[in-house]
Amino acid sequence: MPLVCYSRLRMTDYSIGVDLGGTNLRAAAIDAEGKILTKITGSTQYSSGRDAILGHIVTAIKGVQLQVTSGNLLGVGIGIPGFIQIETGVVIGSANLPGFDGYPVRDEIQRQLGIPIILENDANAAALGEQWMGAGRGVKDLVLLTLGTGIGGGILADGRILHGFLGMAGELGHMTVYPDGNPCGCGNFGCLEKHASATAVMSMARALSLGDLDVTAEDVYNLAVEGNPRAKAVFESMGRALGIALASLINIFNFPLYLLSGGALGSWDFFAPAMFEQVRKRSFTFSRTDTRIEKATLGNEAGLYGAAYLPFQLAGAEVVAANPV
Ligand SMILES: [Zn+2]
């Protein structure tokens, strides 16, 4: 059974996906079967300002388009680290991107290029990418948690990104896991990302005197590999926070698959036991079904694939469940 149904697409169609990361900007032309036709990696600094960043995005898209010599460009999908008002393509909140707040990013890029543009939150795009070409293939309902300096989330229901009424759904890093936990930049206390991100691992390590101010999550991992009990405790704490969050998600959605991605996956063996212990303890649904919590497989490419999939989805591509339930 095909995983994706392309009834209204031509096989010569391709799209361009753009992923705006912290320091690099990647763009790729990808065909309807998920084959990367060409890919470029450029650099952009958030501090260079809105117009410069938008200019880099436009240049990257043009660069990719020039390298594809045949086929029909369906559209461009762009993953951006921020809140996006989906209907208007206006960024309505991005701590990292100066000058983007309230700016009609989609329409401005569209005006400069004359190509249909779809804007999406980067973690939502990554979830879609995993569903299209990664660990979520053939699964219509899934959740992705991206574990990085913060924690992002994407929820796919019936093959579609769950947007909420504005486009801000899926901010799973800001689920409360400890009511009186660490303060978060969002204004809340005890957010998941304050207890389970790489940044959280680093601050727990500092609190446990595992290194200097510049101790990294990788340093903590290396100490755990050497058997350091405090380093192991840091990852157990991270696993507990993740398990508490996942148990709630599983109880809410009853989806078959929950994926974790990001650099922290390398420490899976240290955090996963505590995570599964909490999920088993807290989720009736998990302990009585074959709900899966697994590693995502596309790494940094997920956002690129997902962004590129957006124009295909708009044109009528649909995920077909490999195991309909
Ligand atoms: Zn928060």
Rg over CA atoms: 20 Å
CATH topology of the largest domain: Nucleotidyltransferase, domain 5
The dominant shape is: globular
Query: How confident overall, as mean pLDDT?
Result: 92
Percentage of helical residues?
25-40%
Low-confidence stretches: none
Can you characterise this structure?
With 325 residues, the protein is of the alpha/beta class. The chain folds into 2 domains: 3-129 and 309-320, ATPase, nucleotide binding domain (Nucleotidyltransferase, domain 5); 138-297, ATPase, nucleotide binding domain (Nucleotidyltransferase, domain 5), CATH 3.30.420.40. It is 37% helix and 22% strand. It contains 10 helices and 14 strands. The protein has helices at residues 50-67, 105-113, 122-133, 193-196, 198-207, 217-225, 229-253, 268-282, 284-287, 301-314, and strands at 4-5, 13-20, 24-31, 36-43, 72-80, 83-85, 90-93, 117-121, 142-147, 151-157, 160-161, 257-261, 292-295, 318-319. Strands 4-3-2-5-8 form a 5-stranded mixed β-sheet. The protein has a 5-stranded mixed β-sheet with strand order 11-10-9-12-13, with helices on both faces. The longest helix is centred in the C-terminal third of the chain and has 25 residues, at 229-253. The radius of gyration is 20 Å and the shape is globular. Zinc ion (ZN) is lined by residues 174, 184, 186, 188, 191.
